[in-house]
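Q: Predict the bound structure with pyridoxal-5'-phosphate.
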Amino acid sequence: MAKGPDEIIRDEIRALAAYHVPDSGGMVKLDAMENPYLLPHGVRERIAKLVSDAEINRYPDAGAARLKSRLRGVLRIPEGVELLLGNGSDEIIQMLTLAVARPGATVLGVEPAFVMFRLIASFCGLRFVGVPLREDFSLDPERIAAAIDEHQPALIFIAYPNNPTGNLFDAAAIDAVIANAPGLVVIDEAYHAFAERTYIHKLREHPNLLVMRTLSKSGFAGLRLGFLAGADPWLKHIDKVRLPYNVGVLTQLVAEEAFQHQGLLDEQASAIKAERTRLYAALEREPRTTPFPSDANFILFKTASAQATFDGLKRQGVLVKNLHGSHPALEGCLRVTVGTPDENDRFLEALHEALA
Ligand SMILES: *Cc1c(COP(=O)(O)O)cnc(C)c1O
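A: Predicted complex:
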């Protein structure tokens, strides 16, 4: 007789809760760090033309040569640094983890941080060690050094700024992690557009360092494009794990066009940062919420009852992320994405009502 899922599906996969994406139809959507702005009409027309002429009957350029060369120019990628593209940076996290997935290998990160680091380690059958951040969400250099020493991780992930806490870690503490690591250190700069600090120019100094970015938080979450920058001796192997046509024809074309409009994207990021300042001040003025400072396009804040506040917001058509219960340090915490001025006003009004 054939066996059922209990015997065939791996224990660690059956034990996982499926990644839950809530229904957001008709809501003010402030749960997923998306950019609230579309590109101007003229640019969208050009994209429409590119899409209508695209050869979608053909496989994409597997090496995405034109897109990579445009990226190199726009991001001023130094000579000697290579690029690898992914279907979002989530896919790059998966490639990296798969490439190091020897039996018994360890992936190390801090916690609370981006949940995909731990989840993907589990998908690949690896152990994940999450080193707790300090109470103010800063890195604890001694604790990390001790964990590195004990577990000898093949791969270390650090999000800079961190999600869901929003802060940039101390550069000297990150340098110490890079110096102590026995394997790869990946700096995940998903929120680079809102923080403007980067490790890209340090790539040549540290041969075991890789930098990852995504277009998702700066206007193209629907496109699915992330990239990894680093030295060829690492990237040439990680690239073998990449499925040959992981970045589609349309994604390549639209991203090439998008990078021609860096000025527009910078303006959008500036508008979001200005709103972040306003939203933070409002959350600080509100006696029943405590916000944490953010260098990203979202703000983490604490309330007396996260579930009741989340539900109250949802009833009024505003969707945020409830992080209560996901990690002890996030007790009572909600995370709100910075939206348009109008969306942020609607959030603040709904919040006031929900807390009343
Ligand atoms: C959102 C996010 C990602 C994933 O981005 P995609 O490119 O959409 O897969 C990666 N890292 C961090 C820290 C994020 O917050």
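A: The two ends are 59 Å apart (CA to CA).
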